[in-house]
Amino acid sequence: MKSSNSNPIDFDYQGIVAWSDNYIKDQKEWGGILQEASPVILTTIYAELVVEGSIVASKWNILAAKRHLNDLKRQDDPNYPWKFDEEKAWRPIRFIESKCKPSKGDFDKLVLQPWQHFIVGCMFGWVSKATGKRRFRESLIFVGRKNGKTTLESGLAEYMAGFDGENGPNVYFLANSQKQSRILYEESKAMIEASPWLKERFVPNVSEIRYPKTNGKIVAMSAEKNNKDGENLHFGVFDEIHEYQDYALINVMKRSRGTREQPLIVYITTAGSVLDGPLVNFIEQGQDTLSNYEDNINERTFYYLAQLDNPNEANDPRLWIKANPNFGLMQIADMINDYKTDRKSPRELADWVTKQFNIFAETDEMSFITPETLKLNERVIDLDTLDFKDCVGGYDLSDTEDFTSACLEFPLEDGSIFVLEKSWIPQARYDRDKNPERIREWKKNGEIEIIPGNYVDYTYVLDWFKTMSDKYNILKIRFDPAKALRLNKELEEAGFETEKVRQGFFTLGGPLQNFKELLLDGKVVFNNQKIFKWYLNNVRLRQDRNNNWLPTKQSQSRKIDGFAAALDAHVSVIDLLVRPDDGDFEMPEYHSFNDF
């Protein structure tokens, strides 16, 4: 729901003011901005409006909304363990709106907006059918600055300290520094002081806020505190974890939940500059979970990831709500004018992109595939139709202590390709994986093999190719020469023709573009192997000075070994697709990635 088809970034000051006033008016008229507390819970209504496009949202929050709606459909299944309890979802919302008072500004009451109904409703409303206890143990709320994070944190902390039905609940404001955690603590204290109802029931002092009726307490804690053992967390709010360098405080608080029946940890943050810390990993896990709904990854973690979908959207304020769900309550005209000035400075622009639009800027990389493109490639074929068909092998050994992959790629008669992929990891690597449930699913499907010990013996790869050669006509096996000399020699001794693939822009750029074109045309068949889909999702692109591209992984934890093996094989499969003497089809000409 937009107030104009024109981009306000192009207007003069008066035009921006007029557009902003009209935008706010439109939002208030249809309920995008609430001035009074809603008489009904809006969790599901918000999700429906996001999915239908009436509320502009990031691609990840569209998927989060779909996750909620899909879960609602599944709750009627007797084998599905969760259900949505509207009363439990609404209880903390009603508490915040009726009992809490803002400590700053000219407002005399708090009104939670539809997006906050979605977050709070999901966190508290999804419960176990068997026990009625909360489904979500953790929640990542990723939003731009000035979106009311501190107020929401304080309201939830007070609810959890006295009104969640827990005896002796310990509530923690957690931050990287004691100064930051004290800011949250003081805001909660000020909110209590502003509400006569809360002031009668809570006892705030310098070091903790107590709720005598439940023996609950609210305290501030940071990574700077030396001795954190013995804590017993019922509710914890980690603020601005973009500053965290490691998991020390996070792990301590996670371990302290042991005796609690339904503890909840919430991470509320904007983006930041620490690219190898916990936040980036949490966001990747969230994107993985939301992109692969059917895999039930991180089923007990809630994600709300508000960010622009790409940096170019920064120049269109109509899309800023993607990263700033409270956009309609902000000083919109001032924001737009400030941005128009600040974007002229690279330093200021970087701060806007990171803090206001929640993008970890990576100027030399781009995504290889989208969920929409993946859906074009869900065709399934009968493997028996490939018996004794021509194919090309590829393998990527990576490190022996990590993922190792091999594949066969078949050219099909309609110009498509079929990829048959197999991976291996050592037991030690499996034991430390963040999502072992997913690997177990891959193992069940025969897509990965867990090897005893600390490393992958490459004999497994050799034996796999031997077994496959009994069924398929393997014309040759292409490989990255790094770390492959011994295996290549053994393959040759076993009678296979092998050929190196130099890992450079010149060698792989063309095949990479062609593979992308096949994906866009829906011509990559892999029988929905989940691990190969994971590999594809993990690929990002690196560009050289001549606009050539190479694949790279999105982060250290996001593996692309199976795709690397397929790309090595594809170097030769391209020739099989062309078949100039056949005349049935030709390989499409290469395009620039900018065309996509």
TrEMBL record:
One Pfam short name: TerL_ATPase
Domain Terminase large subunit-like endonuclease: 302-567
Annotated Gene3D superfamilies: P-loop containing nucleotide triphosphate hydrolases
Ranges of residues in domain Terminase large subunit-like ATPase: 114-277
GO MF entries: endonuclease activity
Coiled coil: none
Superkingdom of source: Bacteria
Name assigned to this protein: Terminase large subunit
